[in-house]
Structure formats: structure tokens, C-alpha cells
Amino acid sequence: MFWKKFYDRYWNFDNQKFLLLLEDAKRAEFKWYWKKKKSWDIEITLFQSVSKKELWQFINKFSIFLNSWIDVKWALWILVKQIKNPYMKKIAIEMRDNIDHGIGIYETMNQYPKIFDALTTSLVWVWEKTWQLGKILAELDTNLLENIELKWKVKWAMIYPMILLFLTIMMVVFMMIFIVPKITASFAKAWSELPWLTLKVVAVSNFIVNDWWKLILIIIWAIITFKLINSTYIWKISLANIAIRIPIFGYVVKQSNIVFFIKSFTILLDSWVLLLDSLKTSSRVVTNLAYKKELIRIKNEVEVWLTISKSLWLNLDYEESVYLNKLFPEEFAYVVSTWEETWSLSTSLKKVWDNYNWELKRYIWNMSSMMEPIIIVIVWALVGTIVVAIMLPFFEMWKVAKWV
Questions:
Q1: Torsion angle, CA of 34/37/39/44, rounded to 10 degrees?
Q2: Which of 178, 277, 293, 389 shows its CA 20 to 30 Å from the CA of 232?
Q3: CA angle 278, 283, 285 (to 5 degrees)
Q4: pLDDT-based confidence at 362, cuts 50/70/90?
């Protein structure tokens, strides 16, 4: 019979064959839908996405329902009615329907890697092995909320100076287009020669007014070139290393990646995930490619029976230890080394995470406060240069009038 294809000789259900059958059915349905629908009626799903906030709301409500002893399928049925994002609702419906066919929530989440990160899918996989989804989702709910808050602060610390600089550039361009040409035109009639600074400002103004299309072409060329180069691994790893070494901002990049790693690593260990799997999953959670590469290296060395502290290049065999790892601080390596002797890694790392998280938030707040006067100085320097360039001919005119 047809259904016997989904069972092995020991009568164990093989859901991988069923997943392949579902994928074939989806493709066949899409082809039929394409032929049946007119071109303007087809639903465009290319730009559909789920924000981190919407994902957190889904996990939060799902956790509340399951911890209230509501059945998984019934909880999903309730969530489908409450979800506003159509793409997230489609995924929730697929989760609910797949349960009837022996397909777990983890396997459904795994089909949407852009929505559910490696930590989320790994923890759900642990639940399907231990039947503790409510506890795991509660921990994941807290972790998502903390990550959203921290990532928002990190992004704002990076974006805030860019916004101020962008507004400053727009103000300078406005002055170059509408103010400088009108003033310098009257000076050109009265004096044959303008001061050096005024001539430079006028040249920039003329370029923006007359050759603006060249500027647009240069910007488009720069964006396309960056996109093409950014698709290569060498460029990505180079940018990751540069981001770590940038003054002021480099500390934020390093500290935030360490915080993300420690938090995901401790959650996985507390959920009884194997050490190698925890390292591998945590490497997909961090955002910087240099940290991803470093964690994969550590995982590979641990796999051949090297300790984590040794993989971090902490050598305690000498009286004066030599520590050469530039991505993880030495105190972190000492905490790991202590765990390897006392088997209390999760508890120790949680304390380290609290310290690093608090220190990062304090640094971001101080950096934001420090950047404001720096940006103000840059604004005054740009605007002041234009004002001085405009005023210099007036001083020349005063000198001529004095001698006359």
C-alpha cells in the first residue's frame, strides 16, 4: 500500500519522506495556482517578513498558553486568530496543520530560517525531545525581549550619529544650492578675484548645481560596487575585523557579540543541549563574522578533545600565563577554565553575562552622550566654513573702502 512507504521495516514512522512529499505537493499547488490566477491577481510574497517584535509577541503568547496547560494545537489555533501579520499567520497555520501529519514545530520552523534563528529552532528541538516546551519558551521569551532591547540600543548608538551627519550634509547641500550661488554672483560683478576659501566653496557649489547627475552616478556606482564586493567572503571577514578595531564603536561590536554568545550558550546548556551543539548554535546567533569563525574554530578543537580554555589560547602551564585571543577577554577564559574544574559553567557565565550586559548598556549611554558635542562641533565646522567663505569678500571690500 501507499502508506507503507512512510514506515521502515521496524514500523517506525519516517517523517522525512512525508516532508519531501509535502514539498512536492507545494510545488504542484504553486504551478496550478500560477496557471489558474491572472498575473495581477498573484500574491507577491517576496517582501513579506516578520519583525523581531512580532516574533517575540508570538513566542510570548505561545509560552503563556502552554504554561497554562493549553494543548499545543489549540494554542496555535488561538494564536492564528490573534496574529495580525499575514506572513506570521500563514506560518502559524502551517505549524498547526503539520502537527496532524506528524511534523513537529521544529521542522516547520526550520523551513523559515530568516524568521526563526538558530537558537529558537534549537530550543524547540530540545522541547520535542524532553517535552518541556512551556519552560523552554518562557526562557526564550525572556531572551528575545532582552536581545531586542540590546540590539535596539546598539543600533541606535550606531545610527544616531549617522542621522545627525545626514541632516548636516542636507543643510550644507541646501546652502550650496540656494544661498552660495546668489551671494557669490554679486561678488563676481564687483571683484575680479575672490579669496581662496570662497573660490573653493563656489567650486563645490557649482559642481552640485551644474553636475549633480555626476554625483548621483558616483553614489550609484559606489553602492553597486559595495554590493558586489560585499558578496565575497574575504570582504565580509575584512569588514568584520575592521568593525572590531574601529575606535569607540569597536568596543560596542565586541561586547555585544560576547553578550549574545554567552546568553545563547547558557540557555542551551541549561536546556541540556550537548556542548558541541551549543557551540555550533551559538556561532549562528552572533552577528559578527569574525566571532562566527572563532566559535566554529573553538567547536572544531573541542571536538578533538581540546578544552574550551585551551581553545581560547589560555595557557596555565606557566607561572605567567600568556593570553593572545583578541576577541574574548582574558577573564572570560578564566571563568571557562574554572568551570572545567568545578562543572559550574552555566552559573558562572550568567554572572559574567550580567556584568558584561550592564557594562555595555552603560558604555552605550556614555557614548551617545559623548557623540552629541562631537557632532555639534562637526556641524559648526561645516557650516562655519561656508559662512566664513561668504563673509571673506566683505572683509576685502572693507579694506578697499578703507584705502579709498
A1: -70
A2: 277
A3: 95
A4: confident
358: CB partners within 8 A, 6+ apart: none
Distance, CA of 298 to CA of 340 (rounded, Å):
15
What's the rounded Cα separation, in Å, for the pair 156 and 389? 35
The count of C-alpha atoms lying within 13 angstroms of the C-alpha of 106, restricted to the half-sphere facing its C-beta, is: 17
Q: Give the Cα separation of 210 and 200 in Å (integer).
A: 15
What are the pLDDT digits (tens) for 166-224? 887 888 788 778 777 777 666 666 555 677 777 787 788 888 788 878 888 888 888 88
pLDDT over 60 at 316, yes or no: yes
With a cut of 70, say whether residue 11 has pLDDT above it: no
Phi/psi of residue 7, each to 5°?
-125, 145
Could you tell me the residue ranges of all domains in the chain? Answer: 14-144, 145-404
| Centroid of chain to Cα 145 | 15
Q: Which residues are within 8 A (CB) of 256 and not within 5 positions of it... i.e. 6 or more apart?
A: 150, 151, 154, 287, 360
228 vs 69: CA distance, rounded Å: 51
Q: Which three cell numbers stand for residue 25?
A: 505537493
DSSP string, 230-271: HTSHHHHHHHHHHHHHSTTHHHHHHHHHHHHHHHHHHHHHHT
Burial state string for 60-70 with b = 16 or more CB within 10 A and e = fewer than 16: bbbbebbeeeb
Q: Calculate helix-pair angle for 52-67, 72-82, nearest 10 degrees.
A: 140
CATH number of 14-144, picked from 3.30.565.10, 2.60.40.10, 1.20.81.30, 1.10.8.420: 1.20.81.30
Alpha-carbon span 353 to 344, nearest angstrom: 14
